[in-house]
Amino acid sequence: MSEFVIEIAALQKSFKGNLALDGLDLRVPAGSIFGFLGKNGAGKTTTMKLLLGLIRPSSGVVRVFGWDASDPAASIQIRSRVGFVTEDKELYPYMTVEQIIRFTRSLFPKWSIELERHYLEVFELPLKRKIPALSKGMRSKLMLLLAACRSAELLILDEPTEGLDPAATEDLLRELVTISITQGTTIFFSSHQLAEVDQIADHVAIIDRGRTVLEGALDDLKVRYERLQVVFEADSAVPVRWVDGAESVRREGRMVSILASRNVEAILEQARSIPGASVERLPVTLKDIFLEHVRRT
Amino acid sequence: MLWYKSWLETRWALVFLFGLYGFVWIVDYATPKTQPNKLQNLELPLDVFAFAWIAASVTFAGTGIKTPSVGFRNTKGLHGSTHYTLSLPVSRRRFVRVRATVGLLETAFLIVVLSLVGWRMFPDITAQSTVKDMLAYLGVALICSSTFHFASMFLATFLDDFLRIPAAMPILALLIALDTAKVLPPYLNIFRPMGSASPLMTHEIPWITLAVALAASAVFFLATMKIVQTQEY
Fold this sequence. Notes:
The complex is a heterodimer. Chain A is α/β, with parallel strands linked by helices. Chain A contains ten helices and 14 strands. In chain A, strands 6-7-8-3-9-10 form a six-stranded mixed sheet, sandwiched between helices. In chain A, helix 4 packs antiparallel against helix 5 (136-148). Chain A is elongated, with a radius of gyration of 22 Å. By secondary structure, chain B is an all-alpha fold. Chain B has one domain. Chain B is built from nine helices and no strands. Chain B has helices spanning 2-30, 43-59, 82-86, 92-121, 123-128, 131-155, 161-180, 199-202, 207-230. In chain B, helix 1 packs parallel to helix 4, helix 2 runs antiparallel to helix 4 and helix 2 packs antiparallel against helix 7 (161-180). Chain B starts with a helix and ends with a helix. The interface between A and B is medium-sized, with 31 and 25 residues.
């Protein structure tokens, strides 16, 4: 199998003339927990729909497990190895929890009864309850059960923790990590909760207006970026231009906050050259990196 | 298990229609025969039968992909369970095929059971027809009502359930209007062979009309398949 479970190149998708994806490039390594980030309307859900063949690309390449996701026959093969948690967490309103599990189980020969029992217990799902009577949080858990028990090699999760309380969110994130570790499942998920992504993801991509603006291993990105905080005296001459590599410079009173992606030492030197300035190196969070990239565009 | 999903989608409609039609049959049977029976005229009860079969076939139709409406809730613009359905390793064509089969079987169940019961209950019909006529009637009713089933399935590709069912009825109204106005050649009228011009009355099988009904069903079915295959959700 390819090193990458998902390969997307120059992907474009337009809806009635409106460009939702504008040359998206993405590669998701096998076995990774991949956080897919972007503002509302950036194209995350559209990308996920394209991966599952729900919609077809206007141009470009979408490959999952090496198969062309836009080919209907290949899409069935892909979907037999993928678990999906939808954005709105809607399931069949005429089924009970037990019925939808029975129905979904019948479509996946590798269904794990042990995992099913485990999740029913951990998530405390009421088997006899009709789906409309479940809270959104319960539906999220049920969808994760349905996605995980099929022994999927790839889980595509569209905002899986939306609607969950902090305790349930923690449970779900822990289960995702467990699935990834114990089954080697690749997890591709979108979320607006950057702290969650920071907590479990090992790779991230940030997209904006249908284009990838940043992609890579989270640890590499955190090493690559540094935040420098410069506090100076009131009458100090603060440089108007900073050394190349200062991705963003924000000034608040007598403090300048710089997010640097390269030439960190040169920027430090420039900051230290300001008379009376004190410079501090701070750890970078995913939120810093995300905000920098989506604000820039 | 796709049949199971289709069955769960439609079972209450089947129970409702079976109960409703059964109730009407029983009320008519229980009406004292010394009183004037409104259904004495055979053409009218047979046309009522035909309308009942069409209403059932239209109701049981669907593509098996879009989320069925719950009551009169408008689901237009909402994806509901559609994305979940389409994320399963099943082709869209298979969803449609299974859903169509289950819907047709449910329609057939209603037609066969209630026709046979009705045949026994209405002595006027029994007196005028043979078992062979009754079997011919069942076949004609199944084939002609299936056209409405496939028309309704076609409408389901772009309409919500609560709009689809009333939207399918104007097709019937148009047929009746064209027939009344004598604009429609008799062999194109797929409503009458289920009702007042059925084999129970004519003792003949309307082969040309059956061919028309099958052709129309095939057109609606193939159009539905084509749309569903290319539709984006």
